[in-house]
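Figure S7 source data.
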Amino acid sequence: KKPQIGVVGMAVMGKNLALNIESRGYTVAIFNRTGSKTEAVAKEHADKNLVPSYTIEDFVASLEKPRRIMMMVKAGAATDAVIQEILPLLDKGDVLIDGGNTFFKDTMRRNAELDKSGINFIGTGVSGGELGALQGPSMMPGGQKEAYDLVAPIFEKIAAKAKDGKPCVTYIGNNGAGHYVKMIHNGIEYGDEELIAESYNLLKNVVGLSVNEIAAIFSDWNKGELDSYLIDITADILTRKDDLGSGEPIVDKILDRTANKGTGKWSSSNALELEIPQSLITESVYARYISMMKTERVAASKVLPKPEGKVSFDKDSVVEMIRRALYFSKIMSYAQGFEQMRIASKHYDWNLQYGEIASIWREGCIIRARFLQNITDAYDKEPELQNLLLDDYFKDIAKRYQEAVRDLVGIAVKAGVPIPGFTSAITYYDSYRAERLPANIIQAQRDFFGAHTYERTDRDGSFHYSWYKEQ
Ligand code: NBP
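C-alpha cells for the predicted NBP complex:
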C-alpha cells in the first residue's frame, strides 16, 4: 500500500510524529537529509508500516496522490532548503505541511509563493514536546482550508483528545494563522512559567519554606482551579533529588539562568508592532534576559543595598494569597494573549475563533490547563467578547482575588524580591479598568514641546494650545 503521508526530518519530533501517524493505521514514508538517521528509525521500527527513502525523489514518488508531506526540520533556512528541493517534484494540489516552530511571517511568505505553483502550504503549530508528538500533540494548522480538509482526518486521529473526546486540532485560518497562534501559545507559556517561578521564589525566599514543603503546596494547588501541566510538573520537579549524588533537591543545583529560542520575543515584538499591551509575556521575556546576566547580577548583589525594613505578613494566609495572585495573574496574561489574537485577526484577516483555540489547548500542549475550559465557555457565550476580563467568570475572579495580588505585591516589593509577572498583571488590570489615565499630561507635553496637538474631553477635533503666549 502506498504511504498516505510522508514525513521529512527524522530528528526527535519528526520521528515521533511519524510513529504516532503510523500507530493510527497509516503507512508513512520517511526521509531525512542524513540517510543514516532514516535507516536507524526504519531498523528500530522494522515491524511498523514505515517506508524509508534515501533520495528526495524516491520519497516523493512513493506517496499516494494528492501528496501529503509533513516537514519536521529546523525552522528557518532548513525549511526553505527542503521546500526548494521538494517543489520541482510536486504536482498541483499536493499539500506541503510545515510542523516546525516557524515564524508566522515566513509561513505567510511561503504560502503565497507556493500558491503561485498551485501547491498548498499548511503551517501548523505542534505543541507538546517530543512526548506530545508521539502520543498526541495539540495542533494549530493554518493555510488553504481545502488543503486542510485533505489532512484533517489524519490530524484529528493523531492529536491529543480533550476530556469531552474532541481532538485538540482545528483549522485556525489562512496562511500564517496557525503559526501565529502557536507563537501566542508559546508567549503565554513564557508567562505561565514566569508566574510559577515567582510563586516558588516567594514561597522559598519570603515565606521561608523548604523545597519539599513547596512541592506539597504545588501538588495541592494542582487539585483546584490552577490544575495544569506546568503546575503538575513543577510539583514533580521539586520532589526530585540531585542525580549526581549530593542528596539535595535538584532545583538547588540548577543554575538560575534561562535561555530561550525566541518565540516569546516574537510574541512581544508583534505586540509592539500592532500596538497591543502585552506586558506580562514581555516581562517574562525580560526576566529570562536578566537571568542570563548572572555574572553582572552576582557582582551587583555585592554592592547594591537590599531593603532594610522587615517584612511582616500572616504566615497562615500568605500561601493562599500567592495562589490567588498566581491565578489572577494567569488570567491577566491570557486576557492579553487573546486580546493580541483579536487585534491580529483583524489586522491579518484571519477570522480566528477564540473559543476553538482555547479548546484545542485543553490537552496535548504545554499550557494545557483546566481553566482553558472557562475561556472556551466565555467565547461560547459571547463570540465577540472584547476582553476575557469582561466575562462573568473572570470578572468574578478579579473581584475576589485582586486584594491578594495587591497585598502580595506590597510584601514582595518590601522584601526586595522581583515579581515582574505579578506587578505587570495588577498594573494591566488597573490600567484596563481605568476610566481616566494620566495620558492627558503626556498629550499636553507633546503639544507643548512639539505642537503635536491634543484632543479634548468636551468637544471633537484636534487643538493646539498657545503654550508660549503670556497668560
Ligand atoms: P531540529 O530542530 O533539531 O532539526 C533537525 C532536523 O532538521 C534534522 O532532521 C536535520 O537533518 C534537519 N535539517 C537541518 Br538542521 N538542516 C537541514 C537542511 N538544510 N535540509 C534538510 N534538513 C535539514 O529537530 P526537532 O527538535 O525534531 O524539531 C523539528 C521542528 O519541530 C523544529 O522546527 C522545532 O522547532 C519544532 N518543534 C520542536 C519541539 C521540541 O520539543 N523539540 C516542539 C515543538 C516543535 P539532518 O539529520 O540531516 O541534520
